[in-house]
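Notes to self after the Tuesday call (sharing in case useful).
The group wants a holo model before anyone commits to mutagenesis around the pocket. I volunteered. Ligand is 1-O-phosphono-alpha-D-glucopyranose. Logging inputs and output together so the record is complete.
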Amino acid sequence: MDVLKAVIPAAGLGMRLLPVSKAVPKELLPLVDKPMLHYVVEEALDAGITQIVIVTSHGKDALADYFDPAPHLEKILEERGEASAAAAMRRMRTEAEFIFVRQHEQLGLGHAVYTTRHAVGDEPFAVMLPDDIIDAPTPVLGQLLATAQQYNGSVVAVEEVPPERISGYGVIDPEDISDGVYKVLDMVEKPSQQDAPSNLGIVGRYILTPEVFEALSRVKPGAKGELQLTDGIALLMEIQTVYARRFEGVRHDAGNPLGLIKASVSLALKRPELGPALKEWLRSKMEE
Ligand code: G1P
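Result:
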């Protein structure tokens, strides 16, 4: 199964990050010195996926501006000795190809993905939710691709979620088929704690077959009154087997203030030029 395109839904209102998201798309909020969206595109490139389809909406033109090529800025950074910042910008310009699709009404994640049907066409594709930032030894998308290829079907990423938080997720009913891989028997968006079919919550990385678009065209408003991607995948399961994979890595929900800070601190601690000083400062803060 060849996957060439990654869809990144970025048209949402960013309600959990108001007031800043009123004027700055949440996907452009920084984790250290790059927007969270930049890390997600890097993850796609690391997994060998170079065609990036970003769903935007009114008021979010800055997302497209961010990826405009700027070789003159790369040159300035290089002259200043900031080679890694220059390389990060150059990689977006030379390795990724961007397509922007507008979602005119915020009807839900399923609808956002459905708006990309013409851009994606009749081929399997990835979906990456940009506020799920995952620090992993192998990019999570790469882990999912391996499973999608092995089983020749759609795959969603899942992780174990504590019971008190499960109702914030899409949750699968799993049948164990091998270490960390499940056949999905059912999936439910945002079930109550009592109704959750397991403790395995869907995290924002998917590999989907193109038949999901037909399924999405039939989805009715579900949790929160929205057209949910989970409900579209549940309909896809009527005609195809869908798999889930427990991924290796640590996921941060950067779509809320605490998660944004945690993601930023974790990424900064790994940077040789920032990590040691930040660690020392964090230690001294803990002792206050
Ligand atoms: C979305 C999906 C949900 C998934 C979650 C992971 O929900 O609808 O199935 O578990 O992302 O981050 P949201 O967080 O947009 O409400």
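Two things stood out.
Residues 171 and 188 are 5 Å apart (CA to CA).
Residues 83-95 form the longest helix (13 residues).
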